[in-house]
Write a structure and sequence with these properties.
By secondary structure, this protein is an alpha+beta fold. It has 13 helices and 17 strands. It has a 7-stranded mixed sheet with strand order 7-6-13-14-15-12-16, with helices on both faces. Strands 1, 2, 9, 10, 11 and 17 form a 6-stranded mixed sheet that branches. The protein has a two-stranded antiparallel sheet with strand order 3-4. Helix 1 packs parallel to helix 9, helix 1 runs parallel beside helix 13 and helix 4 packs across helix 8.
């Protein structure tokens, strides 16, 4: 089969690259190894439940989502903006004061908003709130833990709230991630209200794919790419394809197998999905643990949520869906440990809860160590390009931006 451009991988980066190339009048063929589009963003359906492969949320504040995604048609079901914490005193609430003004007394009474640490946090994050490029183009970057220490963010807000929350977002329990990248993520949470599409997170890549003239070809495992100077051939499990150029938009490990790039270290998370007759909470907040002496989570669960409170479409009528997220790597975490942690966090028995499944996602996101480089090289040769969140920022926004940038680079070459 002949095409102007072959895109390998039908995740967010590949689909956005294909859409941009198509808009520029090029014929694009998308090849996907799995049986459906989505890449790392897939949704399983079981007995009336919708189970995303790993706990993920869509933040409509991302610039790429505002530009290229019809968020309204996804029918986002939004989480409350803030968190709840299990600590030695019980459960404390920290809610966004503008989104939840009625919870301001609880937030102020939580004991976590100490003036000195709040001022330090405002100095650390404030410039990025005004302009994202302050962090993206910063010439100096350091690890998150060192940056917090230098800024004087060392109190309970950091130990119990920020460190635990960011461990779940970054899959990083040690604070080794880029401080500038973290600023960008916190900016998105400050301005956005993350949610879940009515039909699951896979609805996002499905929407992107639906605008393509040619549906991505699934069950096509690419085994090799050959640049002949005047064109490229792509060998797959279903035959050979030819094009003028190729965009490799697989996961970083797959891209390294097909090209000369070095794969970044990948971070892993596990998501445990439970069903229950009665929800352990009635709100739409994420619950974190802050009961360890000295601060932070006392057990393996980084955060939990009654997903069906936020997204009723994720559970059948009369049932409730609870997620719990743990780090993947190191000593294995057992179901009994997770249940015990959830019992302590929610102060209720989990004996009647049914474990539906556990999703282990070893390649949840690429490690994002300092210094932050949000525009890593994408052109591998005259005819081969690479796209994905590992070439930008480790996020939905980074994946979409990278795919679009690779496509624009190709069209620029073609137009000369």
């Amino acid at each position: 089969m002949e095409a102007d451009v072959i895109v390998i991988g039908a995740g967010l980066a590949g689909l956005q690259a294909a859409r941009r190339l198509q808009d520029e009048g090029l014929r694009v063929v998308v090849l996907e190894r799995d049986d459906a589009v989505g890449g790392r963003m897939r949704t399983d359906r079981f007995d009336g439940f919708q189970l995303d492969r790993g706990f993920q949320v869509l933040n409509p504040a991302y610039s790429s989502v505002r530009k290229w995604v019809d968020a309204k048609s996804l029918d986002l079901q939004h989480f409350e903006v803030g968190v709840k914490l299990r600590d030695a005193r019980g459960i404390s609430t920290l809610a966004h004061p503008l989104r939840h003004p009625g919870l301001l007394p609880q937030t102020l009474g939580s004991g976590y908003l100490r003036p000195g640490e709040l001022i330090a946090l405002a100095r650390w994050l404030g410039p990025t709130l005004l302009r994202e490029s302050v962090s993206l183009r910063a010439t100096r970057d350091t690890s998150l833990a060192r940056s917090f220490d230098r800024a004087g963010i060392t109190g309970p807000l950091r130990r119990n709230v920020l460190d635990t929350f960011l461990a779940g977002v970054l899959a990083d329990a040690d604070g080794t991630s880029s401080a500038n990248f973290t600023r960008i993520l916190l900016r998105a949470f400050a301005f956005g209200s993350p949610g879940l599409p009515r039909d699951g997170m896979q609805a996002l890549p499905e929407q992107l794919a639906s605008s393509l003239h040619e549906r991505p070809l699934t069950d096509h495992d690419v085994t090799g790419i050959h640049d002949h100077g005047n064109g490229v051939t792509v060998d797959t499990s279903a035959g050979t394809f030819r094009a003028q150029r190729v965009v490799v938009a697989t996961d970083p490990v797959g891209a390294a197998d097909l090209t000369d790039i070095t794969a970044p270290r990948m971070k892993g998370l596990s998501t445990w999905w439970f069903s229950a007759d009665t929800p352990p909470a009635s709100d739409g907040f994420i619950l974190m643990d802050a009961s360890r002496p000295g601060g932070g989570a006392a057990g393996p669960v980084l955060h939990a949520a009654v997903v069906s409170n936020v997204a009723p479409s994720y559970a059948p009528s009369g049932r409730h869906l609870i997620e719990a997220t743990t780090l993947l790597g190191g000593a294995p975490t057992s179901e009994s440990e997770v249940r015990a942690d959830l019992e302590r966090m929610y102060a209720t028995s989990t004996a009647s809860w049914e474990l539906i499944t556990r999703h282990d996602v070893p390649h949840a996101l690429p490690e994002q160590r300092p210094p932050l480089l949000d525009r890593k090289p994408q052109r591998i040769s005259d005819r081969v390009f690479v796209a994905g969140d590992h070439r930008d920022t480790a996020s939905i926004n980074g994946a979409l931006m990278s795919g679009d940038r690779a496509a624009r680079a190709i069209t620029g070459l073609i137009r000369g």
